[in-house]
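step: validate -> pass
step: tokenize input -> pass
step: predict -> running
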Amino acid sequence: MSGLASAQQRLRERAEHHLRLAAMDDLRSSHPQATTAPYRPRGGWFWRGVFVPLYRRLPWDAKQRAMRALHMTAEGHGWTPPERRPGEPWRPPPQP
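step: predict -> pass
step: emit ->
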């Protein structure tokens, strides 16, 4: 894996991790008796205080453009998503 590809992978993993922690916090605030606080390693103030709130406010089109510009989509790795109209749910491709 090239240096750029590994940096992109680390960036994506870190972003997904902090978005997942934020989602767990949301669930915990809705169901405090049924959940516990997730483990939080030290640091991460930028991700919690800047990235997650900004990511949540951006429309999907802007997120998609940013991911494509950074070549952080599966499409950049030889996979093409199935065609569908906006608003239509994803369905697995037909089996041959």
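step: describe -> The helical segments are 3-30, 45-57, 60-69.
step: cleanup -> pass
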